[in-house]
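Checked the freezer inventory, then went back to the computational side. Two predictions to log before the end of the day. The first one is the construct we discussed on Monday; recording sequence and tokens without edits.
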Amino acid sequence: MRPEVRAVLVCDGERLVGVITRKTLVREVVARGRDPRTTALAEIVEPPNATLDPAMPLVVAYAFLERHDLERVPVVESGRLVGVLSRSVVQRRLAEDEPGDAVE
């Protein structure tokens, strides 16, 4: 896994199966002496900590990310992965939507 990649979402078709993080790799592959070239993702994949529904209002989703200190969360509709919501992107978007200072 490249240093900038923190997690990989694993899907079966469009259905989200789970996530593999650096911690997963260390705990399930390295610490157990498994060969990463032959270890199947299905053997080590974990359920995501959280998912969001695409109908959730953006400000509510952002509050959820903040409250749980999450950087990115999969957006899932009926088990199907439809996207990933990033706290930094939402924060930037909400800041863009804030009204600016009034000009006198």
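The second is the one RB wanted added to the comparison set:
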Amino acid sequence: SDCWRIVSLWIVNSAGQVLVAQRSLLKPQSPGLLGPSVAGTVEPEESYLTAIEREAHEELGISLHEVKPSDKIHYRSSDLGSRICQWY
């Protein structure tokens, strides 16, 4: 089975509110579910940090200056393959 490296960015404001995104209803995996405001696949030549910076720019048009990885790394395995996700 395949293994994907992915990143996700959780944006929280000073009031503790979390910005979430709804997945397209046309997605084959988890259509319509709520998730992180930014997420994506890490390309083979990328670091996790480079990937989250690229995804934030592509998806929200923002530049990240002082993003730090969470100590949370999510691992999920299924019949579709494994995913290792670094949260920011």
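For RB: The chain has one helix and seven strands. The chain has a mean pLDDT of 88. Let me know if you want it refolded.
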